[in-house]
Model the fold of this input.
Amino acid sequence: MTLTLIWLLLQSWLKLKVKFLRGGGIRGKATYFVLVSTNFYNIFSKDSKEYISKIMECGGEIALHFDETQYEMNDEEELITHIIEERNILQGVAGMPVRVVSMHRPSKQFLTKDLKIEGIINAYGKEYFSEMKYISDSRRNWREDVDNLDFENYKRFCILTHPIWYDQTEKENIKAALYDQIIKSLRDKWSYFEENISNFETIFSLNEINILMEKIKRLNNEII
Done:
């Protein structure tokens, strides 16, 4: 298997992936990389499991997004051991084979290696940088003209995109895009407390959250 179409690297809420996929943002098959060790989301939660399931139902493949900074490692063997451990965990959640790993903000040390892992495709392997054209929107910035790709010299492309940068309305800059996600997280956090603390709305109402969000929005508009 080769990742000839799209890498979709998840660095935010899993529901953004589902929204992006359902909205027709992808033409063809895509691989969605999911972090196991992260503070962004909990892959064992009911919501996360549903999002992962919906991604697969829509034709997406689930793969591992591995964060090497979560571990103290002394050698390559330990790195591979932790990758396999997280791969097995994600397979259990997805209920499907996980065949690909991509590193989250890989270190220079990792990038210099062409790491080989039995039974797992390394998305940072030399094949995807020397034999294909690699394009990324990291930090919401395409570093080259994606409207005019070099099809004469490259037959295959690896395109790395992040759902967090895209919505129904285009944001003018990276701050505006991140701002939207930050204020939405307030509502998500309120919902979590409301589900787990009896009569929570009598303590902190949803209307208060909405008022707070409006204040933040006005402040943000002044800054931007």
The chain has two domains: 6-165, 174-223. Confidence is low (pLDDT under 50) at residues 1-13. The first helix runs from residue 14 to 22. Residues 174-223 form one domain.
